[in-house]
Amino acid sequence: MTKTVPPALQKMGLDSPMALVLHLPMRYEDETELLSIAEALELGRFRSVQTQGVVIRNQVLFRPRRQLVVSIEDAGEVLQLRFLNFYPSQQKQMAVGAHVRVRGEIREGFQGPEMVHPTVRALAPDAPLPKSLTPVYPASAGVTQTVLRKAISSALKDPNIHDLLVEFLPSKLLAELLPSHQWPNLEAAITLLHQPPADADTQTLLDRTHLAWRRVQFEELLAQQISLKRAHSIRQKRRAPEIVKATESGSKKSIESGLLKVLPFKLTSAQDRVWDEIGHDLSRGFPMNRLLQGDVGSGKTVIAALAAARAIDNGYQAAIMAPTEILAEQHFLKMQEWFEPLGVKVVWLSGSLKAKEKRLAQDLVESSEAQLIVGTHALIQESVHFAKLGLAVIDEQHRFGVRQRMEIQQRIGSELLYCHQMMMSATPIPRTLAMTYYADLDVSVIDELPPGRKPITTKVLKASRRNEVIDGVKEWLAKGLQAYWVCPLIEESEALQLQTAIESAEQLTLALPNFKVGLVHGRMKSDEKAAVMAAFKANEIQLLVATTVIEVGVDVPNAALMVIEHAERFGYAQIHQLRGRVGRGSADSVCILMYAEPLSQAAKERLQTLREVSDGFVIAERDLSLRGPGELLGARQSGDAMLRFVDLQRDAWLIELAQQAAERLLAEYPDLVEKQLARWLGSRAEFLKA
């Protein structure tokens, strides 16, 4: 560690000159303009402004809470500054009589116009203004912009920094890939971003489309693509079982062909195509790493079952892992129904099993008596030892963390073998996300729904019409159909969410005395949940009140109506997943999104989109633009490997350039690959391999 870097910066990972110079501004402030207080009062209600004046009052108030209130004056005009969190040093800096320059937005306070938590500097009235934009850096608690700017400025002057930022990408390669882009070299680009000159294009710096930003974005994407492509090539050098289609002879019956015979439906052409792709992967001698995407209800589970059947035909075990007990249990029941008549031993393994049951399940897995194992993340705990695992299927893979998806390896005989992996997701991955974070995965898409699946009508209604909705539910149930009633998402309090669900169930029971109302929520024991779900499936319960535990995996064809309360609190993917629980039978299906007012612009757009659009891929693209990749990937999954400077939608055209450059570097300049990875990713390269 560099001794000159303060401990607070070291905690942020800024422990070397290189780390500091790659800590680029998240935005810029324009301090090149100075307004009088009179001008600021006129313009500062719509944008951040800079003004100055002499402190005429400085007092700490204790009502309604402790706060520092300072008044400054300039040419007879007064502006109030309010600080809800402050240090004694700030009180001192703004002592009566001091001249200060302040920057912030002006709003109407209780006692007139005020700035809340403005940037403050004690300066002489004639202190010169900066000639360029002032960078604002990402910072953690207790680290000021002044400390960061000083450390970064010092790092840029470090005698070794030129060598660290040296241009090592071949000019020939850059000229071929970027013939029409006159990008600066890396050192010049980074210096400009930290210290933009007076004549720099302000707008392109702010929206990150300046050529200096482009160069940095390209470099970061290049490192990420190299890491993923290299992981792909490492995987192809590993050994995995060659799982091929079994041939039937005499008494030896193929489980795969037996499964196809017992299925109550014929595969769609999309399922046939996807199964061909997966079957081809399984037959190769290196581990499959395939993502199976398909909208809710497209029939991914049957493809997982066919892959498991082929693995079992070849003498290997197969495992299916899901993120929640309710989804894992749905898979288990379905697999039991399909496989047990074919003589396959299906075993259930989850964290909620009693110690004795868990030990028995683990023994069956270790002895290879268990051929198909279904469960939650309990499958990958250290106490579980597979005898001969050939295939792992991971459902809703974005709900698992990076380290939970690392390949399972084992010794089979004298050979170290990796199992084939298939990830499934009903949340479609937008193309740009697939090109960056999933570049190491082969992707299959089931892009048609099974015949007979009807489109779902989505309606958006105000919460004030709740009684009308309940009357509509009563008419619906009177037709012999069933319905879901999903309670509002209250992320900050699971207890409050549970309380709301219980209250809703009680109210609906009173409102619908002729029908049985059931309740299912996340805090119930798994056997209680299973009992309620079984009763709902058997139509012993007509209306199921639920929290989002029914988001995935529940299949009740007679349930054709869904009401979602406080739909404005749910994201795109959640509503799309919930809506997919209906439309599974022959009846016309409806999803009602009830919302409370006032509605934010973002929530309004989201509900409007969901009413008009049923295509999961379109919804996923909208979701990406709203939330960014971090939430779509799952924070744990993306680990530390998030792209810091790239916006996947704005910079999508750069991804293809980076992919081409990564291929060329790996093929023609292997000596430069390690340098690029070390510069941009360091230890984070491991996360991208998962």
UniProtKB/TrEMBL annotation:
Keyword field: ATP-binding, DNA damage, DNA recombination, DNA repair, DNA-binding, Helicase, Hydrolase, Isomerase, Nucleotide-binding
Keyword ATP-binding attributed: yes
Organism domain of life: Bacteria
Reactions catalysed according to its record: ATP + H2O = ADP + phosphate + H(+); Couples ATP hydrolysis with the unwinding of duplex DNA by translocating in the 3'-5' direction
Domain Helicase C-terminal: from-to ranges: 472-625
Residue ranges constituting the Helicase ATP-binding domain according to the UniProt record: 281-446
GO MF: helicase activity
UniProt EC number: 5.6.2.4
SUPFAM superfamilies with a match to the protein in the record: Nucleic acid-binding proteins, P-loop containing nucleoside triphosphate hydrolases
Pfam family membership, one: DEAD
Family (UniProt): Belongs to the helicase family. RecG subfamily.
Protein's job: Plays a critical role in recombination and DNA repair. Helps process Holliday junction intermediates to mature products by catalyzing branch migration. Has replication fork regression activity, unwinds stalled or blocked replication forks to make a HJ that can be resolved. Has a DNA unwinding activity characteristic of a DNA helicase with 3'-5' polarity.
Protein name listed in UniProt: ATP-dependent DNA helicase RecG
Species: Polynucleobacter paneuropaeus
